[in-house]
């Protein structure tokens, strides 16, 4: 399926971000679809500037539309007794770029993982959603039995 629009103004993209943030209050899983849109917002400086809608972004929005259409209201990951990261003292972060990596901190212990050399120049380093999952998985591997 081809794209309908090739570009969107920063103002309209910011409006979409606001709508996604509002939806995420009621349906937290929507946050998973917001990252790529927020990243696109960072590419323009003034409200009237245009941002290119890439095929990847378009496909991302189609998946979001499908999710919203089919979502049945059940969230398996949500828990009434959800523990925040500040209480658990678990923090993770990632940075793109071939010389970067990810880190995690848990109750005074920390770990760092440098991205493999094989990832240099590949699409892997451009997918921040994927890169952000790595330190989470690393934390579970290292300290999962403690939380």
User: What's the total number of strands?
Assistant: 5
Radius of gyration: 18 Å
**Overall SS class:** alpha+beta
Helix percent reads 40-55%
InterPro entries: Hepadnavirus_pol/RT (IPR052055)
Walk me through this protein's architecture:
- A hairpin with a 2-residue loop joins strand 4 and strand 5.
- This protein is α+β, with helices and mostly antiparallel strands and about 150 residues long.
- Helix 1 packs antiparallel against helix 2.
- The chain starts with 6 loop residues before the first strand and ends with a helix.
- The protein is built from five helices and five strands.
- The radius of gyration is 18 Å and the shape is globular.
- It has two domains: about 60 residues, no CATH class; about 60 residues, no CATH class.
- It has a three-stranded antiparallel sheet. Strands 1-2 form a two-stranded antiparallel ribbon.
Give the gist of this structure.
The chain is of the alpha+beta class and 147 residues long. It has helices at residues 10-26, 35-41, 55-70, 85-88, 128-143, and strands at residues 7-9, 50-52, 90-94, 101-106, 109-114. Strand 3 (90-94) and strand 4 (101-106) form a beta hairpin.
């Amino acid at each position: 399926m081809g794209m309908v629009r090739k570009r969107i103004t920063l103002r309209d993209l910011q409006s979409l971000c606001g709508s996604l943030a509002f939806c995420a209050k009621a349906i937290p899983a929507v946050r998973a679809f917001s990252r790529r849109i927020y990243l696109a917002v960072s590419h323009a400086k003034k409200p009237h500037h245009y941002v290119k809608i890439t095929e990847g972004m378009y496909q991302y929005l189609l998946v979001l539309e499908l999710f919203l259409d089919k979502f049945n209201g059940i969230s398996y990951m949500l828990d009434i007794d959800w523990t925040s990261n500040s209480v658990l003292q678990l923090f993770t972060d990632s940075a793109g770029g071939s010389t970067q990596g990810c880190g995690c901190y848990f109750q005074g212990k920390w770990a760092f993982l440098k991205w493999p050399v094989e990832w240099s120049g590949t699409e892997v380093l451009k997918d921040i959603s994927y890169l952000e999952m790595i330190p989470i998985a690393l934390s579970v591997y290292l300290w999962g039995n403690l939380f």
